[in-house]
Amino acid sequence: MSPLAIQIDNRINEFKVLHSKQNQDWFSELCFCILTANSSAKLGIEIQQTIGPEGFLKLPREEIAKRLRDLGHRFSERRAHFIVKARDFRQIKNIIVGIREQEKAREWLAETVMGLGYKEASHFLRNVGYEDLAILDRHVLRTMKDYEIINEVPKALTRRKYIELEGKLRNLAAQLNMPLSKLDLYIWYMKTGAVLK
Question: Could you give the CA distance from residue 84 to residue 76 in angstroms, rounded to a whole number?
Answer without folding.
Answer: 12
